[in-house]
Amino acid sequence: MKKISLIFILNIFLLVLFACNNNTVLTRLDTPKNIVVDKNHITFDKVQYAEKYIINLNGVNHTINTNEFTINEEGEFIVRIKASAEGYLDSLLTEDIFVTVKFLNYPDNIRIENNRIVYDLVIGADSYNIKINDTIYNTAKDIIPYLEEGEYKIQIQSVSKTFVDSKYSPILSIVISGDEYLHTKHQYRYSFKSEFDLPLYH
Q: Where in the sequence is the domain holding 166, given as residue range(s)?
């Protein structure tokens, strides 16, 4: 009789425990914050207890295990993010984030004219990195050198604050000979206030 009573009490205990577990209210994770978009790269703050994140890209979900994501194709995107973990309710989705991704091309038609490097401009580029024999000059920050007599290997990269920078162009190998370099014994001092034109030598 005692044995039957113990079994009955144990069953009641298990039923109560099961009922309590079923009535447990799950905690909802926080929504990711401080979202930063840098060209095609998205970062955000980690969410406490989150095991993964769902990146919704134009309605398509991408699951990641870290708090950063890179978009590898061109286009216009609506991005929303939520945190997820076992034993928790998924966070609410973030508000819509509008992202435009464009990959720049490197400049074409790179050539030397009057001992200076010239090339076709690229739409969307803010400046260009010009690599001359492994030294890099940025057109927005540096003075691009006048090429004197010698051998040069030249590559150019399109750079943007908004779009993805291009790769460097293929290496252009050139030789500037003495015949192409301008020599003169004359020296001139010239400024914006000068009232004469500089002579041209051919």
A: 111-180
